[in-house]
Amino acid sequence: GTTDEDSWGQWLAENDYTPESVRQEIIDSYVDQELIKQGSESMDIHADEEEVNQYVESMRSNYDTDEAWAAALEAVGMTEDEYRENIELSLVSQQLRTKVAEGSEEPTEEELLTSAKTYVPSYDGAKKSSHILFDASDEDLAKEVLEKLQAGELDFATAAESYSKDTASAADGGNVGWDKLTSFVTEYTDALNELKKGEISGLVPSSYGIHIIECTDVFEAPEDLTSMDQLPEEFQEAVKAMLTSSNESQAYYAWVEEQREGADIQVNDMPEGLPYYVDMANYQKSEDDTSGLITGTDENGNPVTVDTVEGTTEGDAAAEGDVASSEEGSAEGAEAADQAAEGDAAEGDEAAQGDSGEGDAAAE
Q1: What's the rounded Cα separation, in Å, for the pair 37 and 40?
Q2: Taking the CB of residue 281, how many other CB atoms lie within 10 A of it?
Q3: Cβ-contact 347, 72 below 8 angstroms
Q4: How many separate helices (H) and strands (E) can be counted in the chain?
Q5: Is 176 helix (H, G, I), strand (E, B) or coil?
Q6: Model-level pTM?
Q7: DSSP state at residue 166
Q8: For residues 362 and 351, what is the distance between their CA atoms, to the nearest angstrom?
Q9: Which of 77, 187, 202, 306 has the fewest CB atoms lying closer than 10 Å?
Q10: What is the pLDDT of residues 36-84, one digit of tens each?
């Protein structure tokens, strides 16, 4: 993204890079890609062509014309074939991760409790809710149901089962879970924030239609967490899932390291006169820059960001065992390629995005 040698040199300095280290990171990313390909072949792991096609078509449908789709790909220096290969590699990588992690030990109760103590503060004040969803054109019906609820003539769960257009939650009395574990549209979140336990909202319009919301529970974090039983079951499951994913990711990264150490890898000396070479003696890091974010690549060649002060990697679950990456399965592969084609890591394909948008290397 830099447009001249000085801005490039200064970017390198600010982020503790050199042309040599940038080159090595890119080489390492391609090495890891090759190791993943070889490993998946040896384990007879392949991407499902129909699944790849679905992701490609899903992303392509966001563009009105073939020209617009081609322009989006060109903007990130990618052809459709390369985009498809990106998805295939990510899907294969996810299957390989699962295969390698088979037999990983389940988290112990002590590990779960230690992890839960980290998350409890962020869960404090969480609200659980149910809703009844009407089409935007059914405002009169929504008002009628709301009046009956307010008068006590109708039970909320029964009303959800009878009237809600959200059939998935309707089967459970309208239950949509805890706001700390689920992403709701802004209008829904704002309305829920105003409710106390047992209260029912008015009509809440959103892009999905018209909601009637009931706050069914509020979680107050204990000052001293001594048992997992002090947490709602959904929080217990979430902590276990994150810790399990972290353990699996660490097992996968250990496998990648083992393959790398056992491979015959030959890296040529860096040639002279490369376009990206600058003399770093001419560039200094700003004195007021105390953190510095370094953008690198993960084992799939996707960008990741490292905070050089905290030592944490946003999203490189495979390399760091980041518990925030979790259960998206092969959707992360599509998300990686979707966001690459969008050219904007902050957006991506909502259909493949799901809940875990924090921390996935593919998503970064």
Answers
A1: 5
A2: 7
A3: no
A4: 14, 7
A5: strand
A6: 0.59
A7: -
A8: 15
A9: 77
A10: 999 999 999 999 999 999 999 999 999 999 999 999 999 988 999 999 9
